[in-house]
Amino acid sequence: MAKNAFLESGFERTSMDALAVRAETSKRSLYAHFPTKDALFLAVIDRVHDLFRGRMRTPDHYAGDPAEATALFCGRFLQMLGWAPVLQTCRMGITEAERLPEAAAQLHEVFFGATTDRLAAYLSDQYGLDAAEGATLAARLLGMTVYPTFPRALFGIGELRDNVPDEASIEADVDMTVIRRATASALLRRRDGNAAG
User: What pTM did the predictor assign?
Assistant: First the structure.
């Protein structure tokens, strides 16, 4: 309820009065749970974190083969970043970053930090990497597969998905050929680098 209100009107234009009406409660009751609109916004971010994490899952959910699991996880991330509510939430975090730096940092962690950490942990486990190597490889993979496309969406170039993306349609929603190629290249470079070292 509050998340949708913030997405529809923006943080600044959403009043506690409007939120109370939408929640079918009194403003006083709303303030009893959330002393400020900022506190409510931070609670919304916590909820978004749980929802996004549940929809992303972990790489091993997508396939038994590590390279394919990695590629599909990257594809799912790109797919989720193209969903209108996720992108609108990213934009809102950027808009409020100067006034609410803690909230902006939490939103970044929700979408990017936690996803990168999950991929890094998976890569470390699957390829016998230490934490730093796993983090470096995860950052490289996301840089090659997700981040070239994401800024275009952030600036409104291209269509967004209004409905929750179904993980069964990853192949239809994103260019998995490009993602698989980039994943194979990064994993090969990592293996060849280790063999040379």
Answer: 0.88
